[in-house]
Automatic annotation (TrEMBL):
Protein family according to the UniProt entry: Belongs to the CsgA/CsgB family.
Top-level taxon of the source organism: Bacteria
Classification lineage: Bacteria, Pseudomonadati, Pseudomonadota, Betaproteobacteria, Burkholderiales
Annotated stretches, region: Disordered: 68-88
Organism name: Noviherbaspirillum album
Keyword Signal applies: yes
One Pfam family this sequence matches: Curlin_rpt
Annotated protein name in UniProt: Curlin
Length: 160
């Protein structure tokens, strides 16, 4: 078990290092409670995390054209995304029970589009120009919280 954790940490560190140097990071994890983290500083970032099983994802992007895509399938998934810069965009798809999405964006062209199924909670905070949030929560008792400070703010929230 310790060897598996060390190997996973090495893979994540390597993916994170490549993401910082080349502006792109892609982590695809199979089933089983894994944690994935991508941190990018610079410009032109693209981070993609695919997870199956109870998992945690973290994306931190500082620069200009930040795009984060997180796809999680299974119970107990958590995604935390922080972006600062100008072209911030988050695409999130969480399915399963007990999902949590937390997004913080500071910059100008902020956009969040999320779909959640399960016991879902989405929290989005945007500060900056052309803010847009679209969240579809397909559950009973799901929660959506949005704070927008700036101009051009738009929120579309659907709960079933």
């Amino acid at each position: 078990m310790t060897k598996l954790i060390l190997l996973l940490m090495l893979c994540i560190w390597t993916a994170g290092a490549g993401a910082q140097d080349m502006g792109s990071g892609d982590i695809d994890l199979g089933s089983g409670g894994y944690a994935a983290s991508i941190s990018q500083t610079g410009s032109g970032h693209n981070a993609v995390i695919d997870q199956i099983g109870a998992s945690a994802a973290s994306v931190i992007q500082q620069g200009s054209s930040n795009t984060a895509t997180v796809r999680q399938e299974g119970g107990g998934n958590t995604a935390r995304i922080s972006q600062s810069g100008s072209g911030n965009e988050v695409l999130a798809d969480q399915s399963g029970g007990g999902n949590l999405l937390t997004v913080g964006q500071t910059g100008s062209s902020n956009r969040v589009q999320a779909t959640q199924t399960g016991g879902a909670t989405a929290t989005v905070q945007q500060t900056g120009g052309s803010n847009l949030v679209i969240v579809d929560t397909l559950v009973n008792g799901g929660a959506i919280g949005v704070t927008q400070i700036g101009s051009g703010a738009t929120v579309t929230a659907t709960q079933f």
